[in-house]
């Protein structure tokens, strides 16, 4: 935070709920504003997945692991994807068709410039792997989308998570990605006082638990919980952003919730764009509100599954109509 230029009088805190951390940060900031604790806050999600992660040889006491669901929390994410595929009979063909559509939509959106108003260009140092030469490069677009990816090319990719199953692979799973996204939240009167454009309104968010071994189904529990709380239905929602951790859970959530194709991940999802864990929850809001502005639509719903067995969902309103 200090490295970003904020003064040392600014308070900060860290949040971690795996894939939903960015949305949890938004929820926390909004709650503090609603309670009167603060008037302005920045909810930021960031992740450098290429840096790897810390691993503990024995992360839990053996008594904890006597509980089967506690043990299931330690299953590799690829294994949970294969569990979803097998438990709910989601074929590799269905998953590859879902993934191909994610790539197609992301390519179309990027070429049309739909992402431009949500991306802040950054300049970074890049080292040539062959010559070792270092140069400065300004990034103006996400590097994830693989142009020209089709169902046929995805069918040729070898399974990634044997022996757990043979349906998930590098092409129909979210990419290992570095990324960051941020959302500035303010009390409405403060934003008006400062002359800031109000792009959207946070309405509510909620989280729900599911069996850890099939954590990918989380959105199918969190979304109905949130919609019931707000007394609305999916018919009232204009744009839906569901994180594509794996195509298995993407297909399951789409079909179980009966989400219309024209509402779901209109600019592609994490299979094409990447899923930097901490970033996704904020990135979805930035992308979704941008899409609402483009279409002149009103209500955005975001959701993601969460490792260890949860799902989270949030609702936002576009105020640029």
TrEMBL record:
Domain Thiolase N-terminal: 2-189
Source organism superkingdom: Eukaryota
Gene Ontology MF, one: acetyl-CoA C-acyltransferase activity
Alphabetical list of Pfam families matching this protein: Thiolase_C, Thiolase_N
Pathway participation: Lipid metabolism; fatty acid metabolism
SUPFAM superfamilies in UniProt: Thiolase-like (SSF53901)
Record Gene3D superfamilies: 3.40.47.10
InterPro entries recorded: Thiolase, Thiolase-like, Thiolase-like_sf_Thiolase, Thiolase_acyl_enz_int_AS, Thiolase_C, Thiolase_CS, Thiolase_N
Signal peptide span: none
Similarity comment: family membership: Belongs to the thiolase-like superfamily. Thiolase family.
NCBIfam families: AcCoA-C-Actrans (TIGR01930)
Annotated protein name in UniProt: Thiolase
């Amino acid at each position: 935070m200090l490295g970003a230029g904020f003064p040392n009088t600014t308070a900060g805190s860290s949040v971690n709920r795996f894939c939903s951390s960015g949305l949890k940060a938004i929820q926390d900031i909004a709650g503090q504003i609603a309670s009167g604790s603060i008037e302005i806050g920045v909810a930021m999600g960031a992740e450098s997945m290429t840096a790897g992660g810390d691993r503990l040889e024995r992360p839990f006491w053996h008594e904890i692991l006597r509980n089967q669901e506690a043990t299931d929390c330690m299953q590799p994410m690829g294994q949970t994807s294969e569990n979803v595929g097998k438990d709910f009979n989601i074929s590799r063909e269905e998953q590859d068709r879902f993934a191909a559509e994610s790539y197609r939509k992301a390519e179309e959106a990027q070429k049309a410039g739909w992402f431009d108003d949500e991306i802040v260009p950054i300049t970074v140092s890049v080292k040539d792997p062959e010559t070792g030469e270092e140069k400065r490069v300004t990034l103006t677009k996400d590097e994830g989308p693989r142009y020209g990816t089709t169902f046929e090319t995805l069918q040729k990719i070898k399974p990634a998570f044997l022996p757990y199953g043979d349906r998930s692979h590098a092409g129909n799973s979210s990419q290992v990605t570095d990324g960051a996204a941020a959302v500035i939240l303010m009390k409405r009167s403060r934003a008006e006082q400062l002359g800031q454009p109000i792009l959207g309104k946070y309405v509510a968010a909620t989280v729900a638990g599911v069996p850890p071994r099939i954590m990918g189904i989380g959105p199918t529990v969190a979304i109905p919980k949130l919609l019931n709380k707000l007394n609305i239905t999916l018919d009232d929602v204009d744009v839906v952003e569901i994180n594509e951790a794996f195509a298995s859970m993407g297909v399951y959530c789409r079909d179980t919730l009966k989400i219309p194709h024209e509402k779901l991940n209109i600019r592609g999802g994490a299979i094409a764009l990447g899923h930097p864990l901490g970033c996704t929850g904020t990135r979805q809001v930035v992308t979704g509100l941008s899409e609402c502005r483009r279409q002149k639509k009103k209500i955005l719903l975001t959701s993601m599954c969460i490792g260890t067995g949860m799902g989270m969902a949030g609702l936002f309103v576009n105020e640029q109509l």
